[in-house]
Amino acid sequence: MAENGGSIEGVRQRNLARILRIVHVDGPQSRATLTETTGLNRSTIADLVGELVRSGLVEERAPDPSRRVGRPSPVVAGSRSIVAIAANPEVDALELAAVGLDGGIRVRERIEVNHLLTPPQTAELIASTIAAWRDGPLAGARIAAAGVAVPGLVRTSDGLVRNAPHLRWIDEPLRDLVAQATGLPTVVGNDATYGTLAEHLFGAARGLDHVVYLNGGASGIGGGLIVHGALVAGAGGYAGEFGQNRPGIAAETDRRAHDGVLEDEVSRARLLSVAGLTSADDATLAAALAGSASPEAADELARQRRILATALANAVNVLNPSAVVLGGFLATISEHDPDELRELVARQAMWANVEELEIRSAALAQDRLLIGAAEAAFDELLRDPAGALLR
C-alpha cells in the first residue's frame, strides 16, 4: 500500500489532527457533535478519541447533565497538561506565558527590564523561567514547543530576526538560540502577525474572512492581514508593517516627528508621557489615560486618533476589509472616542468601503501576542498529533 496521505494510516492521521484541532479551536465538544461535524461514524470517533486520550492530548469529561434527550455523549476537551511556552520580548519587558492545549493560560509573567535585552539574554531568561515553572505551576505538564513573538521583521523560513529596530537586533538567529537554551522545538515570528492569528482564531476577528489588524506596542506599530480567511505573511514573512508607512497629516500642528513614519506619530511613549508614566502594561496605561483630567492627555489622544484614522482609511481603501481590529495602545486610542475614530475614517475612505466596516478592539487584550505565539508553537502538534510529542 502506498505510504502517502492516501494510505489508511495517512487518512487516520488526518482525522486525528482534525479532531484535535476542532476541540482546540472551538472548545470542548461532545462525541455526538464531533460525529456530526466530521461526518465520521460513531465507532470511528470513539476509536480516534480513545487514541487521543491515551496519548494525553485530550480529556474526556462526563456528559452535560442538562442534556435530557437521547443517550448522553461524553465531552472531549483539549488537555490542559499539554502546554506551549510563549514569549514576547519588548524594550521594557519580557512577557511569558504557558498556554494549555485547552486554550487556558496556566501561568503568565511579566519581567520588567531597564535595558535592552540581547538575543542570548532573551533566550537564557526564557530558559530560566521555564525551569522555575517546571518546579512550580507546570509540574507534571508536558511542554510541546516554544513560540516567540518579536517586534520586528522575522524570516519565517528559519526564525532569523532580520531587523527589530527598537531592540537593536539585526540578523539574529533567535530561533536557534531559544531552542538551544530550552531544549524545545521553537518558532519565532512577528508579534503583530501572531496577534492577527490569535484574534482570527479566538478573538475579535473570529469567523471573518477579510480583516486588517494593527497592533500597538512598546516598539511601535505592526499589523497583519486576513484575506479570504487566510493569514497573509508575504514572500519573506514581512507583510503588515503598517507602522512604517508615512501617514498623511492634514494639520502641520499635529506633526511631531519631521518626516516620521506612522509609529513615530502614533506612539505609546507619547501616551505614557502625558499619562505621567515611565513604563506600564496595556491595562495600566489605558486606566491611567481614562482617569486623567489633564487637557494635555486628551489633546494627545485626539491628535493620535486623527493620524491613526488617516492610516486606517488608506488601508480600508486598498484592502476593503469587513473589520479593522486594533490591539494594544491603539485600542486605547479608539476606545477613548470610538465614534469619532469611525467618523474620521469614513470621511477619508471611499464610502462603499466603509458602509459595513466595523472597527473593533482586540478581544484577547494583553494576551493576544502570547496566545498567537503559543498557537504557532502548537502548529506541528496539531498537524501530526501522533508524532509530534514523540520527536
TrEMBL record:
Pfam families: ROK. SUPFAM superfamilies: Actin-like ATPase domain (SSF53067), Winged helix' DNA-binding domain (SSF46785). It comes from the Bacteria. Belongs to the ROK (NagC/XylR) family. This is ROK family protein. It comes from Microbacterium alkaliflavum.
